[in-house]
Design goal:
mainly beta; Thrombin, subunit H; globular; 1 helix
Length: 243
């Protein structure tokens, strides 16, 4: 069995760190601090982290680099997907435009985790603000994909508690998803349009049917199909056989 070494990066303390994205070409790790309202780039060669804020956006849910433009990123702001410009070093990034918005009348919701698949299709989900009550009970979030041809968001799942970890297998035909409030990881089949079906529970984190002292949160996958699930409140990363 492989052994793993965990190292702390030279980065500022986050209020709620989220959404790590490793960019192979830039040899940089991008991530955001949701309630710190900041975006970050860890430069592997320099072993240094650069940090930026965007005026008018105190909450940032995710950051995803835009292919073909080293300065452009899409970020989550409230219930919007927003394009920003950042050189990766300056302490300020700038607003470019709003790409799209969901749930315009649900002011107590916000985007949480989001990613794009290997074809560049955006997937992301919403959740109720933690300050508004028990998110395990309310389940007022929705999981979407963005249809670029139609210029609109397509609903994939409703009654979401906390839309979180998402990843695809190497072939792109299987999708893995975490609603933290379900305390499990689910697998779906992906069709040519990017829609999902055929739900299967890969792992349930309940202990003898009881809620554990943590919730599954972020997730990624390796070339062999093994899932890596980070827990909130557990200080643990689980390696899961997706088969």
């Amino acid at each position: 069995m492989a052994s793993y070494k965990v190292e702390q990066l030279p980065s500022p303390l986050s209020v709620l760190g989220e959404g790590p994205h490793w960019d192979v070409e830039r040899q940089s790790l991008y991530y955001n601090d949701i309630y710190g309202g900041s975006i970050h780039r860890y430069d592997y060669a320099e072993n240094k982290t650069y940090n930026a804020t965007i005026d008018g956006f105190p909450v940032i849910s995710f950051i995803i680099p835009v292919k073909g433009n080293d300065r452009h990123f899409i970020i989550g702001t409230d219930r919007k997907v927003t394009l920003v410009d950042w050189d990766g070093r300056s302490e300020k990034a700038t607003f470019v435009r709003t790409v799209g918005e969901v749930e315009p009348t649900m002011e107590d919701n916000r985007f949480n985790d989001a990613k794009v698949d290997s074809k560049g299709r955006f997937y992301g989900g919403t959740m109720r603000l933690e300050a508004k009550g028990d998110i395990f009970e309310m389940r007022l979030g929705t999981f979407y994909r963005y249809d670029a041809k139609q210029g609109k968001f397509v609903t994939l799942k409703e009654k979401i508690g906390v839309s979180n970890g998402l990843c695809w297998n190497e072939a792109g035909n299987l999708f893995y998803y975490i609603d933290s409030c379900d305390l499990d990881v689910k697998e779906y089949q992906v069709d040519a349009n990017g829609d999902i079906s055929g739900e299967r529970v890969v792992i349930d984190f309940r202990v003898n049917g009881e809620r554990p002292p943590f919730v599954p949160d972020g997730m990624t996958i390796d070339a062999n199909g093994s899932l890596y699930v980070a827990t909130f409140g557990g200080s643990t990363v689980y390696k899961v056989n997706s088969k």
